[in-house]
Design brief:
single chain; 685 residues; alpha/beta; 11-stranded mixed sheet; 17 helices; globular; binds alpha-D-galactopyranose; binds zinc ion
Length: 685
């Protein structure tokens, strides 16, 4: 199937990015030059007004839209699209000065001074009102502007506020959740612990280092509240925009966490995605970290792309920001090697992105981002390495236009869940430095990535029934109904894989009684009696019929109650104890892996499993280490992306019976693919 593109005026991929002419209004010749360069860079889409508030409302209530009118009109004339931002990510100084309640209060209960950005109170009625007025004016003025294709709501929402207004809102949220019954809350939060029982709602505060931080149910509810309050703020922001023209899509830019390439964890993006039209994210992977292969990083980046594509069940997402060269906030701001920008952009497209947008179009002259990469640097020249790469990529995106709107329906899903991560991180147990939840999910994912098996990354709330294989690494929290849905999935013929540290707590972070993995015990047919955290030199191996693997980080003592044992541990105090089990339930199978293991274990395990479950691979051929193969399709034409993430040449044998066309060269391709370092090919079948 083919998804509609974000707006009827958009014909293929969007290419362009954050454009901040509001920083250049005193140098109009630069803005004029931008239009010439935009053409040369083969760009077509620009995000405006992200930090434009102080250029529009210089003093309270006096609005100057002239500059924005001019830029929007001119971009329309030049044939470019505009993604117009609501500027709530940062505000003018006069507002903080006159209404201090808009300033965020930190955990220590100290109110911030004016400065930086992304630092407003999400509850403040004054801030919400000021944003409403601004957004109404933007909607009135631009909702029907020919350049407008989408609204960019605020910027990278995140963080929390601990002011009195937020404390009140938190209590209101809790009263609703616990039916106004404080006793329910006391039980859910296990407040008998350290005599923390409440007898009045007014005693409840947000967690704080100098106050409460040990009541995990409370921490979890606070995170849920912060997430809900942020989403509520967003929902209020879009009211005037929807009112003016409900057909213009709304989005906000999601984030990733670096250097580990995790999704951003502060807000429950799965919930957030349900109230926006398109998922977009800002991708800044730290390519070329010394001593790390680009291969594993590429797979970890793929994981995040797949997660964000899965948030809207396969609907293409957008790259709202990426850098054409380097950033200014990594520890070591390494530039991308020649060709790596295009490779990383094409990778986004391969996983379902319909845009490549940059932060930013032109480097600013001053302030903290002046050395952040941009398409146009301080020289202003189009004859730079970076500009030329961008321009070439733009031409290539034009060539592959038909791919925009296509997607993929994987047979495999890995569960990655925000609330599960919050609860795991909060637990005082295992390795308290890093529990390695996302690392564990990404290790399982990596084995599918290597085989070229498309994979969705989903929360435990999603529908499992469309998959053949469901992997739930470290499913520590099991919310109501989830175990039943997994069981139904297996009974109907699905294959489920669980690991150590699963089925431990319920949705309030209260431990299941009667043995772990709690509500998954019957399905998996095991009882996990103890979990052990290992020092790096603790030597335990896992032995299958033919192979031996090193155990790392965690090892459980489990009992195979109903399940069959497929592999056992040796040495390290775990001699002959079960390590991998399988339980046949209904028409399906439920596997349990009782330890964290070296990558080779997952690779071999999932290679076998792929055969057994007859999973479709994008290319039925040997894929060299460091090469990724992904696919998008409209159901008729398949678009196959072959990407070499290594700095070495690679060769790949195409399946004999298949003929492809290289979309970038229009040549037909069969038999042997020879790939240069960091080269990609986009093939059509
Ligand atoms: C974020 C922000 C941008 C810019 C970039 C720099 O993604 O949204 O405004 O600061 O980081 O990498
Ligand atoms: Zn607040």
């Amino acid at each position: 199937m083919r998804y509609p593109l974000v707006h009827k005026n958009v014909k293929g991929f969007m290419h362009g990015g954050d454009y901040n002419p509001d920083q250049w209004l005193h140098m109009p010749e630069i803005i004029e030059e931008d239009y010439r360069l935009m053409k040369l860079a083969n760009t077509n889409t620009f995000s405006l007004n992200i930090f434009g508030w102080s250029a529009i409302e210089r003093t309270e209530g006096e609005f100057h839209f002239g500059w924005l009118d001019e830029i929007m009109d001119r971009l329309a004339e030049e044939g470019s699209h505009v993604i117009l931002a609501t500027p709530s990510g940062a505000r003018p100084a006069w507002m903080s000065q006159k209404y201090p309640e808009v300033l965020r209060v930190e955990k220590n209960r100290v109110r911030n001074l004016h400065g930086l950005r992304h630092n407003h109170c999400f509850t403040s009625p004054v801030y919400r009102e000021k944003v409403r007025i601004m957004n109404e004016k933007l909607a009135e003025r631009y909702a029907h502007h020919p350049a407008l294709i989408m609204w960019h709501i605020s910027n990278e929402y995140g963080g929390e506020c601990h002011c009195d207004l937020c404390q009140d809102a938190f209590r209101t949220w809790l009263k609703k959740k616990y039916d106004n019954d404080l006793e329910q809350l006391n039980q859910a939060w296990w407040t008998g612990f350290w005599s923390h029982r409440f007898n009045d709602w007014s005693q409840i505060e947000s967690p704080a280092p100098h106050g409460e931080s040990m009541v995990h149910g409370q921490n979890l509810d606070w995170r849920r509240f912060v997430s809900d309050q942020t989403i509520d703020f967003f929902k209020e922001e879009i009211v005037p925009l929807r009112k003016a023209d409900a057909s213009i899509p709304v989005t906000t830019n999601f984030m990733g966490n670096y250097p580990h390439m995790r999704p951003f964890l502060g807000i429950e993006y799965n919930k957030f995605a349900s109230v926006m039209d398109v998922v977009t994210w800002d991708a800044y992977p730290p390519w070329h970290i010394e001593g790390q292969t680009t291969t594993k990083l590429a797979s970890d980046v793929g994981f995040v792309h797949d997660l964000y594509r899965s948030l809207k069940d396969g609907q293409p997402f957008l790259i709202m920001e990426n850098t054409p060269s380097l950033v200014n906030w990594h520890d070591i701001n390494k530039r991308k090697e020649d060709g790596v920008h295009a490779l990383s952009a094409v990778q986004s497209v391969a996983h379902g992105a319909d845009s490549i947008l940059y932060f930013q179009w032109r480097q600013g002259r001053g302030a903290s981002e002046k050395f952040h990469g941009a398409v146009v640097d301080h020289s202003g020249s189009e004859h730079t390495r970076v500009f030329q790469e961008v321009s070439k990529l733009g031409a290539e995106l034009d060539k592959i236009q038909p791919i925009a709107g296509t997607s993929i329906k994987p047979e495999v899903a890995v569960i990655f869940d925000w609330e599960n991560q919050w609860a795991i991180d909060d637990a005082q147990a295992l390795n308290n430095v890093n529990k390695k939840y996302s690392e564990q999910c990404q290790a399982h994912y990596h084995s599918f990535w290597k085989q070229g098996i498309p994979t969705d990354i989903i929360t435990m709330d999603k529908d499992f029934s469309t998959y053949k294989v469901l992997v739930g690494p470290m499913l520590y929290m099991i919310r109501p109904g989830v175990a039943e849905r997994i069981e139904a999935f297996v009974k109907a013929g699905g294959t489920f894989i669980a690991t150590y540290w699963s089925g431990i707590v319920d949705e309030n972070d209260l431990c299941f009684l009667g043995g772990f993995p709690g509500p998954l015990k019957n399905l998996l047919g095991v009882w996990a009696e103890e979990i052990d955290s290992l020092y790096p030199n603790h030597d335990i191996v896992l032995k299958t019929d033919s192979q031996t693997y090193q155990v790392t980080d965690y090892c459980e003592r489990i009992h195979a109650v109903d399940a069959d044992v497929l592999a056992r541990f040796e040495s390290g105090g775990y001699d002959q104890r079960p390590a991998v089990t399988v339980n046949q339930v209904g028409n399906g199978k439920a596997y349990y892996i009782a330890s964290s293991n070296e990558q080779r274990f997952y690779d071999d395990f999932y290679q076998e499993l792929a055969k057994e479950c007859t999973l479709n691979r994008v290319l039925n051929t040997e894929i060299p280490e460091g090469v990724s193969v992904q696919k998008r399709t409209d159901g008729q034409t398949d678009y196959v992306f072959v990407m070499n993430f290594t700095d070495q040449a690679q060769t790949l044998q195409l399946p004999q019976e298949e003929n492809y066309t290289n979309m970038l060269t229009d040549e037909s391709v069969h038999n042997t693919l020879k790939m240069d370092p960091y080269q990609y090919m986009i093939l059509k079948k």
